[in-house]
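Page 42, continued from yesterday. The earlier attempt failed because a stray header line got pasted into the input along with the sequence. Redoing it now with the clean sequence only.
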Amino acid sequence: MKIALLLPTSDMFPTLGRDFLKGFKLASKQNGQNFEIIIESIGKASDDDVLKMADKLLLQEAVELTISFCGIFQLEELVTKFSQYKSPLLFVDLGGSLPKKVHFNPYVLHHSLHLCNSAYTAGQFAAERIGKKGALVSSFYDGGYQLAASFVVGFTDNGGEIVYNYVGPMEYKTADYESMLVNLIESGAEVAFTLFSYKEAQYFLNVASKVPKKEVLQFMALPLMTDESMEYDDYGLSNMRSVASWSFSEETDSMQSFLNDYKNTYSTNPNIFSLLGFETSLLASHANTGGKIEFDQITGTAIDGSPRGQLIVNQNNQTEIEAHLLRKFEYNGETYQNTITNKLKAVEGQNLVERFEEIPYTGWKNPYICT
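This time it went through. Structure tokens are written below.
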């Protein structure tokens, strides 16, 4: 079977495409799939080049399946195109924005790491278990998706109130995080939702470590802010948590098997893009019926084999998970890890889509986190 992979580039994660492909090939081998893969780079995946490349693959290469990691702004036009061709499209991203009803189509399957769903769950947990006064603190770039809105809506839907907001400058090295921290503490916020990644996260974590121990302020971080692959120094943090759909510290058989198989195959540890690639291949394998991709064969089913547990494909061809992981960011003497402290029931994906249906997309057209 001939399939096409449309993969973006990322300044923050330059090995994104390679890592995704490694995960994809590992799962393909384990599931006995002999996919003939055509790989195309689509840059930042934020312009018409995505659509032009899709046209080329459909017309010239006659692929059986197209897998596209691109921005949600391109999705509506892709849905129209692949519906017209009656050709399957597997749209993947990290879940930095939620889909809308116009994106639902029997020829399109949407898979992600469910970041917005995790952010909503984090807001919900914070309002119920930490406190009702919250703050939203974000970088200029990470605030350009629906992650901030997901935190806030989850928090306010459950009785919380945002008492302080901060958005960093475009050039993060000019940010005065020390003054921001003073204002944050003075606001009386009990929990701060923090949206930072890559080098900006390092800057912020250094400042966050200076919160006086007598303060009750807790941090609820974006999962990419506490990503293990960043190899952070010891900041002495004890008040930072995150909610995510995964943790490479999870002791389940499925996660440990994935970690071991990946390292044995590639002599390196996987990251979130490897995980996404692995699951994408898993979905393609289960939809492959005699050399033809049939999404209706997996619609409404639960698929085993993911390192995160079961992947549920709902009636709108959107993947879901059963639970999110509450993780504590802590140093183990050598490196930071995300230690699981609780499992939180996931909000049904369709309910969240309906909740956000009228909330417009804003900010960056490229997929999170391809800046």
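Notes: The mean pLDDT is 93.
Reminder to self: strip header lines before submitting.
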